[in-house]
Model the fold of this input.
Amino acid sequence: MFTIGCHLSSSKGYAHMADAAASIGANTFQFFTRNPRGGRAKDIDPADAAAFASKADAAGISTILAHAPYTLNPAAAKPETRDFALMTLADDLDRMEATPHQLYNMHPGAHVKQGADVGIQKISDAINQVLKPEHTTTLLLETMAGKGTEIGGTFEELAQIISRIELSDKVGICLDTCHVWDGGYDIVGDLDGVLERFDQTIGLGRLRAIHINDSKNPMGAHKDRHEVIGGGHIGLQGIAAVTAHPALRDLPFFLETPHEDIAEYGEEILAIKAAREGML
Ligand code: FE
Ligand code: FE
Ligand code: ZN
Done:
């Protein structure tokens, strides 16, 4: 089965997201756990979580992906910035138990001129502090574009973080097509080669989710500007090939493309499904 969806607003709760996903032919979705810039999370309404569970069942939604605020920086030099990241991650992981056995994605962080080694150490220390044996959630580290001092722009950096995590069986990777492309991985010309490098450094078994985005920039630009599918340098065929690849096709795929209206995601999903069919 092809599992595909897009990023949805969580402002009206879980049950509403299940309805929104079903309305555009999606069988999964991503959402922010709180304001993407950080801040306090709304309390989870148990009635909403229960309504979600039954709606999800009816809509064939078995996997959902929560996304941490993208401003969190567990590698920060400033103690108060790092403490805020730790507090938010811990709170999010507790809240994730309202929807057990799901996926929670985070950007690893930025070393802000402390050097990649210090950044990697701080990120893995932070994850070791917040991950608890009782958590049922899988924590995903997202592959990044390598913009500025971002950590996670190479598979090697992500492998180094994971190697330092104690409860590493609870940790996986979310691969973002725009980010790896901008990071210099040629997923259009040599997808097999990129996946082989991933397998050798991290292991394909760690790969749990894919963000499918086209890129406004050429390969290796280290920019991170998402484009609608078919409007950028990766192209519809390039994205469809990622969704059809034997090593990837059973994973959940999430669009984070720039659209104003949810119906446009429905059209994008249809176009990807059609292009993917021809490749299977
Ligand atoms: Fe992200
Ligand atoms: Fe992403
Ligand atoms: Zn991005």
